[in-house]
Design goal:
This protein has helices spanning 16-27, 39-47, 55-69, 84-97, 115-125, 131-158, 167-180, 184-199, 218-222, 230-236, 247-253, 256-262, 275-287, 302-306, 308-318, 333-354, and strands at 6-8, 30-31, 74-77, 103-106, 211-216, 240-242, 292-298, 322-327. The protein is an alpha/beta fold and 355 residues long. The chain folds into 3 domains: 6-129, Rossmann fold, CATH 3.40.50; 140-205; 207-355, 3-Layer(aba) Sandwich (Rossmann fold), CATH 3.40.50. The strands form 2 sheets. The chain has a 4-stranded parallel β-sheet with strand order 2-1-3-4, sandwiched between helices. It has a 4-stranded parallel β-sheet with strand order 6-5-7-8, with helices on both faces. The longest helix is centred in the middle third of the chain and has 28 residues, at 131-158.
């Protein structure tokens, strides 16, 4: 393996397993994993960020700092559908002002729609890499993402009803297998093992469990640390938790055009970023008779703020209560638990009355 670079990407839930696979297997470049997100990560990011920037900016900046401390000499910044496209330039300047020396590959700069610019970005990671090998690794990394999203969905829908308490162990082993995978066969084996282990557990799930759907901005809703483990907290209360917002559902299987057509009754135009996806998912949950909906958003995220009146209309039409949660670097774990318990009690009482 050529190791001229030691590249890193900021932490993003557990998707770094697929990013690591792509960098190492596709571009033959060493991938440095930043430490798991922590309060220190947030503090580092908040200390060196503009006050009114959205929370994911601060978290990813803190993760970049920790990656550089861990030995990375190259930072790769992804692109996105909102201000994420502008994160890279500002974060690079902040890091250089802090005195770090590194190479910075900002994929947003190459997001022109032209194939030659995409190739330039990829060659920037390793100029001698094989595009055939990189393409093969990309396909396999996408397979890993699909398996990751599938197992994660199964976990949060069912872990609250596992009397043996082994669901978390199976899930942790699956995540470990994905980070360790060196080829497609190992990716598929890890997925099969987790699926089989889940299937062997007899769940104690009521016939009509409380079902709550979760929507929110791309980063905060998909990253357990950033949302203070909201899915696990709900599952521990005996809730069947559903989250359609993941890379597989939002970017691989459903087009923006189709989603916008589906929600036209509530919103004729896109409000940017994850707004269309969130409304499409909220309507999906409502039509399936879910007992409640939770919107997870970061502070200063305008698209998520813009859709709140639309969610209120949808809630009224479908008689589905909505809990709005805003996260920043000062969010309290205790405060979140209190609000979730109150929401659960309300949803449970409504369900009993309905029956």
């Amino acid at each position: 393996m050529k190791q001229e670079r030691k590249a890193a990407l900021p932490r993003y839930g557990e998707y770094n397993c697929a990013l690591k696979y792509l960098v190492e297997q596709g571009f033959e470049t060493k991938c440095i994993l930043p430490p798991p997100l922590s309060r220190r990560t947030e503090d580092l990011g908040a200390k060196n960020s503009p006050d009114l920037v959205c929370t994911p900016f601060k978290t990813t900046l803190g993760s970049m700092i920790e990656a550089l401390e861990a030995g990375a000499d190259t930072i790769i910044m992804v692109l996105g559908a909102c201000r994420l496209n502008y994160f890279g330039e500002l974060q690079e300047q902040i890091l250089r002002d802090l005195g770090y020396t590194f190479d910075f590959i900002n994929l947003s700069i190459y997001n022109t729609g032209k194939k030659r610019d995409i190739l330039r970005a990829l060659k920037g990671i390793n100029p001698r890499c094989s595009m055939v090998k990189a393409g093969k690794a990309l396909y396999e990394a996408v397979q890993m993402i699909e398996h990751l999203d599938d197992i994660t969905s199964l976990y949060y829908q069912n872990c609250g009803f596992d009397p043996t308490g082994t669901y978390p162990k199976i899930y942790r082993q699956f995540i470990s297998d994905m980070y360790a995978a060196q080829n497609l066969a190992e990716i598929r084996e890890g997925y099969r093992n987790a699926s089989r282990a889940f299937a062997e557990i007899t769940l104690h799930k009521p016939q009509d469990p409380i079902r709550i759907g979760i929507i929110g901005d791309y980063y905060t809703v998909m990253d357990p640390f950033s949302n203070l483990e909201i899915e696990q907290k709900l599952a521990d209360m005996g809730v069947e938790v559903h989250r359609l917002m993941n890379i597989t559902n939002d970017m691989l299987r459903n087009s923006e055009k189709n989603k916008q057509a589906k929600i036209r009754e509530f919103s004729e135009y896109s409000m940017g970023a994850s707004s269309t996806s969130d409304l499409w998912q909220a309507q999906n949950f409502a039509e399936r008779g879910f007992d409640g909906l939770i919107q997870v958003k970061s502070a200063c995220c305008m698209p998520e703020t813009d859709i709140m009146p639309v969610l209120a209309n949808l809630s009224q039409d479908y008689k589905m209560p909505v809990l709005y949660l805003t996260y920043d670097t000062q969010s309290s774990d205790v405060g979140l638990t209190t609000r979730l318990e109150a929401f659960y009690d309300m949803v449970e009482m409504r369900k009993k009355v309905a029956h």
